[in-house]
Design a protein that fits this description.
This protein has 162 residues and is mainly alpha-helical. It has one domain. It is 59% helix and 7% strand. It has eight helices and two strands. The protein has a two-stranded antiparallel ribbon. Strand 1 and strand 2 form a beta hairpin. The protein is elongated, with a radius of gyration of 18 Å. The chain starts with a helix and ends with a helix.
């Protein structure tokens, strides 16, 4: 395995991109749900109260809230299954949630950091420049236009599409 050190070195920039993006958005993991759309889409969604296989598979055949986003709704269903709290917690705005927001936010951050790695790999392939690809991927990932999709749970449907 003489190429092993070379392969490890080739992977380091991708790991660096992932960690840099995760560090930038780390604080978003500790945010609460908002009263904008998080209620009707997540914490007050009747399909998650309680989560059952039938309630989640329904998203694959019928649009919910006039949107056909079965992957997003399935991910949220999985989060809701593990994020159930014994007592409801407050949300930003008004209302309360039976779910902890942390798993929902953390998945958004992880998916976005993973997408940044894919952007890095694409840029490195297109340009042949490792350092340039790192800069381009991080610039794409931390651009202010990315904050809402990553930090807002309902906005995560855009992140999951990546």
């Amino acid at each position: 395995m003489p190429n092993t050190p070379h392969r490890v070195v080739a992977v380091l920039p991708a790991i660096g991109v992932f960690l840099a993006v995760a560090a930038v958005f780390f604080a978003a993991c500790f945010g609460a749900f908002t009263s904008w759309d998080d209620g009707e889409n997540v914490y007050a969604n009747p399909h998650y109260l309680p989560v059952t296989p039938a309630s989640v598979t329904q998203f694959w055949s019928v649009p919910y809230n006039q949107l056909y986003t079965p992957v997003t709704n399935t991910i949220w269903g999985a989060c809701a299954a593990v994020a159930r709290l014994p007592q409801p917690v407050g949300v930003i705005g008004s209302g309360s949630s039976p779910f902890a927001a942390l798993p929902f936010h953390a998945l958004g951050v992880l998916f976005h950091a993973g997408a940044a790695v894919l952007v890095f790999l694409l840029l490195r392939r297109l340009t042949g420049s490792g350092p340039g690809a790192v800069v381009g991927a991080i610039f794409w990932a931390i651009h202010p236009v990315q904050v809402e999709p990553v930090a807002w749970v309902t906005g995560n449907n855009n992140v999951y599409s990546g």
